[in-house]
Write a structure and sequence with these properties.
The structure is a homodimer. Chain A contains 17 helices and twelve strands. Chain A has a seven-stranded mixed sheet, with helices on both faces. In chain A, about 55% of the residues are buried. Chain A is globular, with a radius of gyration of 21 Å. The longest helix of chain A is centred in the last third of the chain and has 21 residues. The first copy, chain A, has two domains: about 150 residues, Aspartate Aminotransferase, domain 1, CATH 3.90.1150.10; about 230 residues, Type I PLP-dependent aspartate aminotransferase-like (Major domain) (Aspartate Aminotransferase, domain 2, 3-Layer(aba) Sandwich). Helices cover about 40% and strands about 15% of the residues of chain A. By secondary structure, chain A is α/β, with parallel strands linked by helices.
């Protein structure tokens, strides 16, 4: 039993985000690079969801505690809208309002996975899910998946080969962050069958459910036979309505286990601020046209990137990113060293290792963080840097050592 | 390794709040009882902290992600104000913004206590701390304390008798929820000496730091020799500024361990909504007069309750509650049965068992949840019910069985 100054097992398992190693350099640059490393949008949220629109009446209810489960009016609006989208069997007791998708994934993993369990994380994955799993004392079992599937690999074979006796839970994300894969109906069915066959819980991160591009289409995996009781479906106003700053997500599933997830959540945050819930309710009730327009804009950006980014990647079928294999360009150069050079060249992208330990020589490029004209400038800078790497040229740069800024880490 | 439908060890350790057993009855009553069971204030927050005041400019920064550590301007405002109050050595890197005191206690316990550790919780205590400790896989070691100390018991003797080899962390709260105890300088020094002597971490919940009533005074335990490095000090806008609905707290301490606590917090909520941070910043920068007035109102209420509540309790020295030993009145009657009768009689109070398993025949009475005229009505109802119990009379009531509504639980 370690006491002061020793810290807990849980906290010692958590690492800072890889990108933070680049921050000291970023802060020293005379001009901020164009930000393609982030996971957020340049779009402004729906007008009805503006905070000034939901606070003008000086509603006294905004200041005391509110329901740990979430406001009934918001949960009702969610049920109606997501029922319209096709999610079956939705009722208010099956919806819990969380602090973003982060809070929802956190509560779901803590509810399904005990310390020592393996959580099968289909990779490349949303970076925080690894740390969340570690913080639960569980083991993130990273399964290279989406890039293999896009390359024609069989879903069932990939999953069966990765299964361990300790696996209790699977984490899947479609449309996927970081690579824009949208699973087909057949692929999704194979994931579902695997969960049913092995009595596994499923955490289905559907943060980008509103941003699948035809002919790809978002489908609700919880609708498949045998899945409703075992699936935690997760949604977020961050991606659906450009409201990341309000930190509001939805954890959806069977009221039986959801009651326990609610207790987990109550002990972490008690309730979500009502002002944020009011804004998201307005977005849900009035934001359909906004969502259609946002999807069209993201799709245009994704198409432009697919045609113009001179790198090795699968075109996005949804979401907000492409994930590029730059091993050919990097040669012996550590990925983070190139990302530091890129900052100097005026564009920032995210290191692949954040999305899975198998992806150290990949990078994630966000195409929704800038309007198209600026996105084009950023991608051109990225293309020039990749061309420089291919020609084996050094960065033309006179300044403090980039290596030093990385602390020797790759 | 249990799979679906088995749930995790962590979630299975968490229980719903005791008071929820009364909710079905509460919902059936023709008129809502006067609410003295809650932990919130009737006061409106400082005008400058109203959400309409901080959202009128349509600040675009409110909608994207913001810093997981908290907004620098808020942290700076906190440092200045709390330095003025007397907390020493405060710097921005030593302040982390959390989702309420709940988020702060959650992050602190997860950072200090490993699974299997004992966390010494001085009782009676804020109800969520027990579940938070359980959710970390640690053991809540409940130490009857504040009532013993008010009765003249020696702090050091109480603590030494309770210490186990597995203890890594102590949780203390002053001014205390639920009993209004404010530790004296000598008592606080004894707690500090105990932590130093046994290499223990200290979580000092100072949610009610602005509400100690003279001659009692709030003192910062982190200022004592040897305490700064081992103390997590916790504050909240919920109690300081009547902003519970905004869910904003502060976790304060040495930047070394705080960096790990920040990682824990980042994996639970990512960041706190900036709109809430802006409102609390305004409260901190302009709310001094408001705080003085609020304290005066609470102190008046506490004085009135001390003189007029006909029960066995120590007068509040701070905070917002008194904690009453009603074992004499209850006789053989289960406490929850009486609380159900009280609902029918028009007043709700909180069951003592929520504040520690040694306090099953105690109740918490909040005196800050109603303006004084209504508080007086509520206390008179409470007095009448206590008198009825003392006379051995039954509740005059014709309606559905109260026992049935409690599910036979006491």
């Amino acid at each position: 039993m370690p006491r002061f100054p020793a810290l807990s097992a849980e906290s010692n398992r958590l690492q800072p985000a890889v990108f933070t190693r680049l921050l000291p350099l970023l802060r020293r640059l005379p001009e901020a690079p164009l930000p393609l490393h982030i996971g957020d949008t340049f779009l402004e949220p729906p007008a009805a969801a503006r905070l000034s629109a939901v606070t003008s009446s000086e509603d006294r209810a905004l200041y005391p505690y509110s329901s740990p489960a979430g406001d009934a009016a918001l949960r009702d609006a969610f049920c109606r809208r997501w029922t319209d989208k096709g999610l079956q069997g939705l009722e208010i007791p099956g919806v819990h309002v969380t602090v973003g998708a982060t809070g929802a994934v956190q509560a779901a993993i803590r509810t399904f996975a005990s310390p020592g369990d393996d959580v099968m994380i289909l990779a490349p994955f949303w970076p925080l899910v690894r740390g969340i799993t570690l913080s639960c004392g569980a083991n993130p079992l990273q399964v290279p998946f989406y890039d293999r599937v896009r390359g024609g690999a069989d879903v069932t074979a990939l999953l069966e080969a990765a299964l361990t006796p300790q696996t209790s839970t699977v984490y899947v994300c479609s449309p996927n962050n970081p690579d824009g894969t949208v699973l087909t109906a057949a692929q999704q069915q194979a994931v579902a069958d695997f969960c049913v066959r092995h009595d596994l819980w499923l955490i289905s991160d559907e943060a980008y459910c509103d941003h699948a591009f035809a002919p790809a289409a978002h489908r609700f995996i919880a609708n498949l036979p045998g899945m409703s009781a075992r699936t935690a479906s997760i949604y977020t106003a961050s991606k659906s309505y450009a409201l990341a700053g309000l930190r509001l997500g939805f954890l959806v599933g069977d009221p039986g286990w959801l009651e326990l997830a609610r207790r987990v959540s109550t002990h972490q945050v008690y309730n979500v601020p009502l002002v944020c819930q009011r804004a998201v309710q307005a977005a849900i009730e009035t934001g359909d046209a906004w969502v259609q327009d946002a999807r069209a804009q993201y799709e245009s950006a994704a198409s432009w990137v697919a045609a113009n980014l001179d790198a090795r990647f699968q075109p996005a079928q949804g979401g907000g990113y492409v994930f590029c294999d730059v091993s050919g360009e990097l040669g012996d150069k550590p990925a983070l060293t190139w990302l530091a050079e890129l900052l100097v060249e005026g564009v920032s992208i995210a290191p692949g290792v954040a999305f899975g330990s198998d992806y150290e020589r990949w990078v994630r490029v966000c195409y929704m963080s800038l309007p198209l004209p600026q996105l084009k400038v950023a991608i051109e800078r990225l293309n020039r840097s990749l061309a420089r790497l291919r020609r084996g040229e050094s960065l033309a740069y006179e300044g403090p050592s980039l290596e030093l800024d990385l602390g020797g880490l790759s």
